[in-house]
Every structure is written in C-alpha cells, then in structure tokens.
Write a structure and sequence with these properties.
The complex is a heterodimer of chains A (about 160) and B (about 375).
Chain A (H helix, E strand, L loop, with lengths): L2 H6 L8 E2 L13 E3 L7 E6 H5 L11 E5 L8 E8 L6 H17 L2 H4 L2 E8 L10 H8 L3 E4 L2 E3 L6
Parallel strand pairs in A: 2-8, 5-6, 6-7
Antiparallel strand pairs in A: 1-3, 3-4, 4-5
Chain B lengths: L2 E7 L2 E7 L3 E5 L6 H12 L1 H10 L8 H8 L14 E4 L2 E3 L1 H6 L9 E4 L7 E2 L2 E2 L11 H17 L4 E4 L7 H12 L3 E7 L2 E7 L6 E3 L5 H16 L13 E5 L7 H16 L3 E5 L3 H15 L4 H8 L5 H10 L4 E6 L6 E3 L10 H4 L6 H17 L1 H4 L1
Parallel strand pairs in B: 3-14, 3-15, 6-13, 13-14
Antiparallel strand pairs in B: 1-2, 1-4, 4-5, 7-8, 9-10, 10-11, 11-12, 15-16
Amino acid sequence: MTFKRAVTQTPNLGTAWQPGLQALRAEDKPHIKVEDPREEHLRGSADIDTALQPHEPQANRWDFAVGYQHTNRRNEVIYWIETHTGSDNQIKVVLKKLAWLQTWMRRDGKQLANFERDIVWVSSGHTLFTKGSKQVKELAQKGLIYSGAILRILNDRRS
Amino acid sequence: MATLHIKRLGQIKEASLVFGDLTVLVGPQATGKSIALQLLKLVVDAGQVQAELGRHGLDWSGKLPDFLDVYFGEGMRSIWQPHETSIRWDGQAVDLLQLAARRRKSKEESLFFIPAQRVLALRDGWPRPFTDYTPGDPFAVREFSEKLRVLVEQEFGASGDLFPQERRLKREFRGLLQEHVFANFHLKVDKFHSQKRLVLGVEKGAESLPYMVWSAGQREFVPLLLGFYWLMPATKVSRRGEINWVVLEELEMGLHPRAISVVVLLVLELVMRGYRVCLSTHSPQVLDALWALKHLRETQAQPEAFLNIFEAPNTPSMRKLAGSVMEKSVKVIYFNREDGTTTDISELDPSAASQAEAGWGGLSDFSSRANEAVARAVANSNKENQS
C-alpha cells in the first residue's frame, strides 16, 4: 500500500492527494524542507483540513499529511503536520486537534494509520517555546513533535 | 561597540566578535572560545600582562613563541601561524610580534579574568600565589590565583567570616547563596597548626569543614565568590580600580541549576555596575535567561517578570537590577567547529532557519532529539490500537 493509494481509499479524502507539496497552502510550504523533492522520495501530500471541512465542519481538524520514502525504510512514512502559532495559549487548541486526529485514524483513517508516522506541530509564526522547555516535553509525551518553524525531512530517517 | 577580529589563531579560522554589555560565547569544546577570551585580555591589557610576568621573573626575550607559551600556556606557541595569523581590535591591527618584542609602559589593568580552571586557585583551602604554578601554566590562571591571595590576605587577613559578610554583596544575593550554595554554612578563615585556611562552619565553636570535604560545587564556587568580591569592593564605589571588562569562563562549573541561577544574577549585577562582561558557557540555562530577557524587553514587561525566572526576591534593589539589565545590549556568539568561524546568534530564535541559532549553538540539540525520540515512540506505539 502506498501513501497515495491509502489517501484515495480513505472516506472523504478521495481527491485530496496531490503530487509533491501541492496540497499545502502557499503560506505553509516554506515551513517544510524536504531533502529530495523528487517523486521517488516525496510521495505526495493531502490537505486533510479542507477535504473534511464539509463533513466535519465543527471539528478541530488536523491540517495535512505528507508521504516520504526514506532511504533507510522499506515503506513510506507519513508526516502529519499542523502549522500553528507556537505559543503557550495554543497548546490546548493543538492538543484538541491531536485528539481529533487520533480518533479519526481509528475511525476513517485506518489505512493511513498503518504507516509509520511523525505527528508534527510546525510553528507558523514567532516561536515562544524553547526546544528544551517543559511544554515541548509534555507534547512529546503525547506523541507530538514540536519542530519550531521548519520541519526538515531528510532522506535518512533517524531511528 | 568594541570588536575583535581574529584570523588563523589556533582552531579559529576566522572569528568576528562584536561585544555587547554582556557577551556570551557558546560552542563545542576546543573551538577557540578560551583562546579568544585570553586574546581579549592580552589586547586590552598588554602592558599589565607584561609587567606581571616580569614582576614574577618570567622572561620571554622578546620572542613571540616564548611569549605565547608563557601567556597562553605550555605548547601554545603553535596557535600562531607566521604570515597568516591576523588580529584587529576595534578596527586597528594588533601585531603580536611587536607586542612580544616591546614592553608597554601602561601597567593599568582594565580586564579581570576568571578562568575555567579556577578550582586550581585554592590549595588546602588557601589561594596559591602566582609563583606557586609552573612557568607553563596559563597566565590567566596564575593571575587570578594571585588576585585571590591578595584579596584574602589584605581584605580578610584576620580570622572571621568571608561569607556571609554584611558589606559584601546585596542582602538578597547573600540569602540566595546561603540557600543554594552554602546550605547555611559560613565560609571563614581559621588556623590549622598556625596555617591559615578557608573552612566551612556552622557556628562558633562547632567543628569546621576543611577544603577537602567541601562539595565539588562549593570548591568550584568559592574562588568564583572571591572573584565577585574582587569586582564588587566593600566600599561605596561600584567597580574596582580601572577595571572595565570582566571575563568569566564557564560560570556553571560544578553547580546545580539553582546555584547557576544565582551566579547569572551576580553576573547581571556586574553588568548593572557598568562592567562589560564576557562569558563562555555550555549551559542552556544561561541562554534560557537571555532568551527570556530579550522577549521581556521587547514586550516591555515589568522587571518582576524577569526576577520570577530566578525565583529572586521581589525587592526594590532586585527590581532595579532587573530593570537595568533589561536596558543592556546582549550578544551571543557561536563558535563553529566545522569551519572554524563564528556566527552571531543573539536573536536566539528557536524557529530560525539557521540551525546554529535555532539549536542555540548545539546547547538544545540533545533535548530536541530526546523530545523527538519520545514523541515518535508514543505516536507509533498507538498504531495497533488505531488500525
């Protein structure tokens, strides 16, 4: 199963898959740096938020997903990315989105949930956390990586 | 702003240091931070350095390699590369060959240097004189040690308490040090078989603890405390003599984070008094404090907000300190091992595109990797439940 196929087989995401980072909003693209943008590595993206908006308009939907084939992995890895202001008062909002994502994966996103994943909060503005802060550690314990303003996806994935 | 530009000196290929009121050097071991700081002392105080070396019987015969061994320490002649090394201080070229060849007239000291090896300054609980070291030991260590000897013998000659002392340091600092470093012990001079020595004791009549049974942190801190005493005289003057600059290497040595907080506050007290302070550090806590200082300044926060970080007493005197340092300029300079250059990372922006700045010169990298490993393990451990 590829990332593209899993997206197309997921309820209400049918046409969300786009090549490269094309599913991302223009303002989000500068926050994602991939080492190799060619198709053999960058396996496409999906705008989860927009695709599910008509179906779950009140939900705290996650932003988007990016599929990447690393050189040291047999299968593609999915990066679940939320671009959001990096400040203390947004933690609750992002954690609600995380809870929604986890529920959605159990319900509709089962195929996508089978992939190895990182769930990442990318700061869309000025960051007001330090990387060693207690808040970032609390997020990590909930499975959320706080990347700062830039998420770098390298060919060789750190284990 | 004062600037020091260094090319091809030891591990440094090219370093550009623009100094603020407080300047902090970060970077991995052996990237040239200490060489840069010792060089700063040399360019600022060449006459005083030469006079001190001469006074203690050291003769380099006007030869630069010998001078470098005497000043930076044995074997350090190799840091200088003929025709390649160049130094500019405030835009003016500094010729090291000429500096070693000709004695300067001025003997004024304007930079006080507290070296990383400060624990060596005490032996058996008493400061060692300059000549107690070998000729191959760095000048900065010998000179610091000598200063402590003079301080303790001249200003604390009679037996009595060195800490706490009514006229030394603010009351608030004394309280914080008592709590976080000395644990209610007093630092005092006593005699053992007629030999004076510094000991820790609780109260008069009780047994005293000699140097060798102090905690590692206390052994590290006492020379530093004496350095602060040197810089903050008991008189009403805010600074000692003609000293304008202070270098403090690795302020965190041997100290618990709570004690580091107090030392950072003491450093800021020096800055408030008008000293230009240069630190080197491997402690992310120091950069945490500067990062907070920057944002509190930008948001025009009250000084209390800054004091809260240190759990410092909210007194008029401490608010004055916080208010004062919020006005001061701070520079953070990263020494890069890969290419031997320096980068100004004063913005300390965790979201900067530059890895050096976002990772605070490598000081937050480990924490980031730990966070990532935990987050990844948690995110993927739930997979089976979700599928």
